[in-house]
Amino acid sequence: MEVSLPSLFETAKAEMSALSITVMLPRMLAAAFIGALLSLRPWRLLMNRPLPKADMVQAQVLLCAAAAVITAVIGDSVAKAFGLVGLGGFVRFRSGLKDPRDAAILFLMIGLGMACGHGSLGLAGVGTVFVATLLLVLDLFNREAPSALKQRLLVSAQADDLVRAEATLRSALGERNVLVKSCALDFDGRRLELEVEEPVPGSLTAALGRTEGMPLRGLRWTAVSPKGGREELT
Asked: For 140-153, how does the pLDDT look when each residue is reduced to its tens digit (9 = 90+)?
């Protein structure tokens, strides 16, 4: 069945006439505002707690807005609802959620976004207040253990092939999530130094244990104090 270009314009014109921007725009803005408010959790600033990660905040805002748009598109059409459900089955997320609470918040965002898209702004407002209060209470009772200070260390070694030795060390350190802050190569003295940050005590030792048999000589590491002093460890 062929569809002419003028008929497409006529269909679009009819849809635009039936669609009220003054009705839909507040719904979309309300969904974006609710998503931003609940994802940022601004009360954490008063509790000296870190705000959620930026990628999770953006995902929750977009999901809340997407739920509003999808609900507006579906309207009262059962056929559109089943079509969008089938289309959503093709969506795959490559990264899983490490915290089950994030998954629960995403479901809440979908519900509030659907309420906005349906035009039930009063229900969405009451739901936002309830969810915000619930998250505030959970944050009050969730006493997060203070994260241990990451230890900064200086790893030094000698090798004939410094480029290969650096790649070997970086690979071993990366497997244990030891962050390399800086690197210095002395080609005349056949020596290299890596300033690293140890996330968990013992992770550096476990990482360097994987370099056994590699062309490295005189492998040692020293602790770097915040004031710049060094303490020999091995």
From this structure: 887 654 444 577 88
